Amino acid sequence: MKGHKWFAAIYDRMSAPEERRFMGEVRAEVAGGARGKILEIGAGTGLNFPHYRDGAQVMATEPDPFMRRRAERRLAESGKHVELREASAEQLPFDNDSFDTVVGTLVMCSVPHPQRALAEIKRVLKPGGEYRFYEHVRYESAFGAFWQDAVMPVWRWFAAGCHPNRDTVQAIRNAGFDVVELEKSKPLPLFRRWSLPVPT
Ligand SMILES: C[S@@+](CC[C@H](N)C(=O)[O-])C[C@H]1O[C@@H](n2cnc3c(N)ncnc32)[C@H](O)[C@@H]1O
Description:
Blueprint: H1 5-30, E1 37-40, E2 57-61, H2 65-78, E3 82-85, E4 99-105, H3 114-124, E5 125-134, H4 142-158, H5 168-174
Parallel strand pairs: 1-2, 1-4, 2-3, 4-5
This protein binds S-adenosylmethionine (SAM).
């Protein structure tokens, strides 16, 4: 993969408000709850790394060299046992039944071939293994989905291939996973309230 230099460069700064507001908690639950031999797909800049339990055995994969470079830095700071490798989720360089848990946060929107990626996740998971994910999904309302479809081409260009309109939970079910626990949260507000300092 050639990679997205500018998206990688702004990613942490752009996500910082959401990380503080709720994503930190999400990562603590999704990555912090991972057990056994763990595989993370599309690790990005490594924002999940600090949330793995101490002593967890984690193999992290990321195809974008610019993201990976940042993840390497974060890894050095995190003090966690994470091995970082170049790989796309559609072609995981691991044997069948190798992991107890696969972790993926905000990844299925960006992979070019989600069905292939989900088949790969299923292949490398041991029988009874767990895929722990956090993804933004297609609106259930026709109005919301219409807007997601409308903004998709521009958003995909800006956000390094991200498709805001994918029905990822259905895709996960179609791939043969039993969804045993699912929490849906409300869409993010489109506009944050701005406040300006008022001179006194
Ligand atoms: C929105 S970022 C999320 C990064 C990270 N998982 C997080 O939670 O902050 C999407 C990530 O998916 C990665 N990605 C894109 N195509 C991929 C593929 N085919 N396989 C695995 N990861 C991919 C991108 O390089 C990027 O790091």
